[in-house]
Specification:
The complex is a heterodimer of chains A (about 280) and B (about 500). Helices cover about 50% and strands about 15% of the residues of chain A. Chain A is of the alpha/beta class. Chain A is elongated and about 65 Å long. Chain B is α/β, with parallel strands linked by helices and about 500 residues long. In chain B, strand 5, helix 9 (about 225-235) and strand 6 form a beta-alpha-beta unit. The longest helix of chain B has 23 residues, at about 405-430. The chains are: A alpha/beta (about 280), B alpha/beta (about 500).
Chain lengths: ~280, ~500
């Protein structure tokens, strides 16, 4: 039986997964319409339609990471603490394991010991590391790394940037400059990946808008998806900005980075873990 | 799309303003708007429900009392409920009779524990204590290195070694005793609440340290999961309070409100930026006021005091509220504000500004301050005192001198006028205007407050704002004599 409690329960599940009120209401309205017109009368059927609705919104898009530069440059951006450096470490390991020569650019010259953290990951991944002094201009560190990679014939530069709150105009300007400079030399920026923490609430959409405007974001990396948070805000981000999720982070080991699977993601939205 | 609680509430107020009485359907409409605002602010679904129930219970059938109309009473109720949820009182740090006082920090990955540890150490130093930092995050690469760098920066010793987190905590505590440090702050690795092994480990660290304060470090941008996580940490560690980080962004911080409601622990500190100075004691009543668009005047004053001399701060605040400032003042304000921190966060503290910050965004975008400075620097003293004298040829001269366009000069003068007018309105509305305020107003525009001087600020009561009545200050939510007249739009 599908009754008001069904709709209420589904609405709550979506809200608790951080899908957000506007998207939740639009999804529920859409399913209600289909339930009426298609004569669905069981809860399982309704849930199926809802999942279909979300999958539809996430789109059948290309989620591969683009190459094509010599070297290709993948730039990582996001607010503080979302996991940019760790993601670079894991992705570097993955790409190096696939036989590519990888250079890390320690473009976070602000946070204390951020370059040291990346260096540990460079060792783990078998990547080369280019770093500048603390407080150095991040654009020139990234530029140097790209030139270094080009000189050695490396395939890929993974460029870290300092976390920044998206409301800080001057820092967003700085990021736009890093993005431009990364393209200036021998290499080409083929991906700008916005890292979003799965625990992020509705602010995630505002973050995505600002970063997209400043750095021409091509994909999302959704991190910390191994916890109890579901990361539902990326549905709104994809719908609003058309930026697909490409990778998910599910732990702190080097293998804990996966390709984004929309079906798994949608299933997980409706299973809220309760910690012991 | 996402209006802040402040602007949304102001919108509701405007809608129901002037009605003598509210029917149950008015109350429901009001509650529906609050629900949307709270959900967009990441307040947990269950907390939204509880909060709305409480507000409804108190709002329906309320007697019209004294000078307040029913609408004002609802606002007062909402304010009180938000304040109550936010902890109801200010967290007071306690010190061990037998030092060191031990502080444990825990939380999810990336919530800001390491940076917070350093900020907290600096805060304790400011309280006249001799803190020490213990780096027990051996999991994240270079986390200890980060803590050491920050410790060097604030001149606080850092202990760590590469054994294991529990041993580091134990040895660190012994080291604090040996060095005679009276506060020991232990940083730990970020961990997920559902990671059984790591949760057991942090519980063991807690058993070892027997901390006097255990703080959960929470990212202000967290969504609905915040409550689940906080409950798990609370169960394992017995939290004393929260430290909320990244409040310098535009996140509404509903997660913090939710945790305080569900876990029943107050927010002790708020972290509002990336440098170690961007850290302050948290005042629940102030945030409740700020959420309702009533401003956070006390914090503004305190921050200003830290940055420049007290007299200057008082005069600046008075002039700002008076609306009698010149372009010179305008420039001085911009420079001072920049010194104080992010402009958006400062403007949000001024009463009635929350909804106007949007309009001011363009005028006060940090990116544009340099150009504005250039323009004002290219003006003569008399032009700065009274921009009305600026005609076409003067505009061309100023534009040439500052390397800007004539249109920008026009825009600046226009924005300056609007800002002055707006501040005048803010300072001048409502019946509660002080004598000192009236006296100052007579001096007319263009003059700095020199002879009479600004009204002294009573530190205990906080700043008494003209038209606003006393802000809740430190008296807590139950004082019952809150003057809400000033929060109504005066147009």
């Amino acid at each position: 039986m599908v009754d008001d409690r069904t709709w209420e329960g589904l609405t709550e599940a979506l809200l608790l997964a951080d899908i957000g009120l506007p998207t939740t209401e639009a999804l529920i309205d859409g399913v209600r319409y289909r339930v009426g017109s298609e004569g669905v009368d069981d809860v399982e059927g309704v849930l199926g339609l809802l999942k279909e609705g979300i999958l539809g919104r996430l789109g059948g898009v290309d989620r591969s990471l683009a190459f094509g530069g010599e070297p290709s440059v993948w730039l990582f951006v996001g607010v503080n603490g979302v996991g940019k450096t760790t993601t670079i470490g894991k992705l570097g390991w993955r790409e190096a394991s696939a036989g590519r020569s990888v250079v890390f650019a320690a473009g976070d010259t602000f946070r204390a010991a951020a370059a040291d953290q990346l260096e540990v990951w460079a060792d783990r991944a078998g990547a080369t590391m280019v770093r500048g002094a603390e407080g150095a201009d991040p654009g020139s560190v990234v530029f140097d790394a790209v030139e270094h990679a080009a000189a050695r014939g490396a395939d890929l530069v993974l460029a870290d940037t300092a976390g920044r709150v998206h409301t800080r105009g001057n820092l967003m300007d700085e990021l736009a400059k890093v993005r431009r400079v990364a393209d200036k030399g021998a290499g080409t920026v083929t991906e700008t990946l916005l890292v979003i923490d799965a625990t992020t609430g509705q602010n995630g959409l505002l973050q995505a808008r600002e970063f997209a405007a400043a750095a021409d974001v091509t994909g999302i990396v959704l991190t910390k998806l191994d916890g109890s948070a579901r990361g539902g805000i990326v549905v709104a981000v994809h719908e609003d900005l058309g930026i697909p999720v490409k990778l998910v982070g599910v732990g702190e080991d080097r293998d804990d980075l996966l390709a984004f699977d929309p079906a798994d993601f949608v299933d997980a939205l409706f299973s809220v873990d309760v910690p012991a | 799309m996402f209006e802040g609680l402040s602007s949304r509430f102001e919108g509701i107020l405007r809608k129901i303003r002037g009605r003598g009485r509210l029917g149950p359907e008015d109350v429901e409409e009001f509650l529906a708007e609050i629900r949307v605002a709270l959900l967009e602010a990441d307040v947990h679904l269950d907390v939204v429900r509880t909060l709305l129930d409480r507000i409804r219970d108190r709002a329906v059938g309320v007697e019209v009392a004294g000078a307040l109309n029913p609408g004002q009473i609802i606002v007062k109720i909402v304010l009180e409920e938000l304040t109550a949820v936010l902890g109801g009182e200010t967290f007071r740090p306690a010190y061990a009779s037998k030092p060191p006082t031990v502080v444990l920090l825990a939380g999810l990955q990336g919530s800001g524990k390491t940076t917070t540890a350093a900020k907290l150490a600096r805060w304790y130093k400011g309280q006249g204590r001799n803190p020490m930092l213990i780096g027990a995050d051996l999991l994240r690469p270079a986390a200890v290195e980060q803590l050491r760098t920050l410790g060097d920066r604030i001149n606080v010793p850092v202990f760590s070694d590469s054994t294991d987190p529990v041993s580091v905590a134990r040895a660190g505590l012994a080291e604090a005793v040996r060095l005679g440090r009276d506060v020991a702050i232990c940083d730990t690795a970020g961990r997920l609440a559902i990671d059984e092994d790591l949760m057991a480990e942090v519980a063991e660290i807690s058993d070892t340290l027997q901390p006097h304060h255990t703080f959960l470090v929470v990212d202000a941008m967290t969504g609905q999961d915040a409550v689940t996580t906080a409950e798990a940490f609370h169960t394992r560690l017995g939290l004393d309070a929260l430290i909320i980080t990244k409040l310098d962004g535009d996140a509404r911080g509903g997660a913090a409100l939710s945790i305080t409601e569900v876990v029943g622990r107050p927010i002790a500190f708020a972290s509002t930026g990336e440098t170690v100075e961007d850290f302050e004691s948290f005042h629940p009543d102030r945030l409740a006021g700020r959420i309702l668009g009533m401003g956070d005047v006390e914090t503004l004053i305190e921050k200003a005091e830290e940055t420049f001399a007290v007299e200057e701060a008082e005069a600046a605040a008075a002039r700002m509220l008076e609306g009698t400032f010149t372009l010179d003042d305008f420039l001085e304000q911009l420079r001072a504000l920049r010194k104080m921190g992010s402009i958006n966060s400062i403007m949000g503290m001024v009463p009635g500004m929350a909804s106007q910050v949007q309009d001011l965004d363009e005028a006060l975008d940090e990116r544009r301050i340099d150009r504005i400075e250039g323009i004002i620097n290219s003006m003569t003293p008399s032009e700065r005192l009274g921009p009305d004298v600026i005609d076409g040829s003067r505009r061309a001269r100023i534009a040439a001198g500052s390397g800007t366009e004539v249109g920008e000069i026009n825009q600046l003068v226009k924005q300056f006028r609007e800002m002055r007018k707006m501040m005048k309105q803010m300072g001048g509305r409502g019946p509660g205007r002080s004598k000192a305020g009236r006296a100052r107003k007579k001096k007319g525009r263009g003059g700095r407050v020199t002879t009479a001087g600004p009204a002294p600020i009573d530190k205990k009561k906080g700043l008494s704002l003209p038209g606003l009545g006393d802000l809740p200050g430190d008296r807590g939510p139950s004082s019952g004599d809150l003057d809400l007249t000033g929060i109504w739009p005066s147009d």
